[in-house]
Amino acid sequence: MNKNSFGVLYIVATPIGNLQDMSPRAIETLKSVDWIAAEDTRHSRSLLQHFSISTRLLSLHEHNERERIHKLIEVLRSGQSIALISDAGTPLISDPGFIFVREVQKNGIRVVPIPGACAVITALSAAGLPTDEFLFAGFLPVKLKAKQDRLMELSSVACTIIFYEAPHRILETIKEMEKIFGAERRAVIARELTKLYETIHQGSLQELVEWLQQDKNQQRGEFVILVEGFSSARTQEKKEIPTEKVLKILLQYLPLKQAVEIAAEILEERKNKIYEIALQLKK
Ligand code: SAM
How far is the CA of 16 from the centre of ligand 1 (A)? Predict the structure, then answer.
């Protein structure tokens, strides 16, 4: 239960490149709180200046999160409110804040999200890969062996898998994915989202390696990598089973109408289309 006299912790998303993505609610919240806890106060100062926000800043980053928490909880308990922001996007998403939020909740203090940009969701919304289910895997380990082990673990995941990656590792990572997930697996590189050089490029992992190697400019900036899940790769293979082959087998054992119905179901195709092919085969 939130005590009425306690302050509120707001989790405020900021743009991932395009300042116009800052929401009016985010600006209003940042203006109205007593403190803004920022990952890098120098970096955030220019964003805040742009929106004429003069709220006091304090730092909360991965190296001081644990020790800072108690002081910040005291601030909240005294009735003052805090907004947490990160360098870009939604705090806590591959950014610090999780330990803080958990402790704040344990103390019965209200946590209010102010949603906005987030690179993983922005990329997914425009990638053209299945979105009904996805796994956000964050950053892969830096060391090669650990990276390969993690990719092996993920290789049979059925849904879309999403990663963040740094520019100096993008080529090596896509090459490792090609080796472990297979050259044919479809993937998307989403680069510099919402910025001047925004690029969303789809291809097989093999094609993506070639594309990155051919144009070094494509290795610059910020990246989200999205990889098609194992099962959707299999679904495509299944669709590639030749209609004729399925029909020929079924027609050996069944009357035409029944063979067409079953083939249409297996191949997820229109009955009319299958019927025409079946007639040709019969001839
Ligand atoms: N909290 C952020 C969010 O909500 O997306 C992510 C922070 S994480 C430290 C930074 C990583 O997010 C970058 O290295 C990159 O992989 C990804 N990223 C952030 N902004 C991006 C952009 N504009 N385009 C593509 N990827 C971006």
Answer: 7
**CA 230 to ligand 1 center in whole angstroms:** 25
Segments in the chain forming alpha helices (H): 24-32, 41-50, 65-77, 98-106, 119-127, 144-154, 170-181, 205-214, 230-239, 243-253, 256-267, 271-282
The ligand 1 site (C-beta within 6 Å) comprises: 16-17, 86, 88-90, 93-95, 118-120, 164-166, 190, 192-195, 222-224
Looking at the DSSP bridge assignments, the partners of residue 162 are 136, 226
- Give the model confidence (pLDDT) of 150-207 as tens digits: 999 999 999 999 999 999 999 999 999 999 999 999 999 999 999 999 999 999 999 9
What predicted TM-score, i.e. pTM, was given to this entire model?
0.83
User: Ligand 1 mean position to 195 CA, how many Å?
Assistant: 12
137 and 48, same structural domain?
no
Find the CATH number of the domain harbouring 52. 3.40.1010.10
Mean pLDDT of 223-227: 98
Q: List the domain range (segments joined by +) for residue 226.
A: 120-234
Ligand 1 centroid, distance to 164 Cα (angstroms): 7
Same domain, 20 and 31: yes
Answer whether residue 103 shows pLDDT above 70.
yes
Based on the structure, what is the number of domains in the chain? Answer: 3
Mean residue pLDDT across the chain:
93
Whether 90 and 149 share a structural domain: no
With 90 as the cut, is the pLDDT of residue 53 above it?
Answer: yes
Nearest to 165 by CA among 176, 174, 156: 174
87 plus 176 within the same structural domain: no
